[in-house]
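Lay summary. Proteins are chains of building blocks that fold into shapes, and those shapes determine what they do. In this project we predict the shape from the chain. Here is one chain we studied, written as its sequence of building blocks.
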Amino acid sequence: MAPRLVEVVRTYLSLPSLADLQPSSAPALAVRLERLDPCPVDHWRALYAQIGAPWHWHDRDAWEDERVQQHLARAEVQVYRLVVDPDGGVSTTAGFLELERHQDGATEIVYLGIDRTVFGRGIGGWLLTEAVRLAFADGANRVWLHTCTLDGPAALPNYQQRGFRIERTETYEATLPT
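And here is the predicted shape, written in a compact code that computers can read:
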């Protein structure tokens, strides 16, 4: 099958302060965040593939393991996995979060996503709320992220409902498998 060329719109958003956060309600499912410190490369790659593959997260696929490990070992980078604890069931990984503190004092939400099996349960809003709280608790002077039209349809509305404001957009072409 021939790959197809698609136009993608990337949207950059920011939240200037914790006071601007419009928190989401807690989801109906029992969920928790686990910081992975240190985060093993194979575990990071598994999370990246599980959560990101449906949305064409491939920018780090080409990174050699050593490069991923060096990135994850940086004090500015925090990785979390989202765990769902069903009543009497087996805990499962249902999401992924990566934060990176930058030299200007801002924290970027580099990756944030949930598994398709938990869509529609309020977990995405809760995860974003927790990401913002973690970033500001770690001293961020603002929190920012970007999303694109390849991401889930609820991503951009979720960011805006939590108080993020659009700063700018850009358009580019991406080659996707058919």
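What the prediction tells us: The chain has a mean pLDDT of 92.
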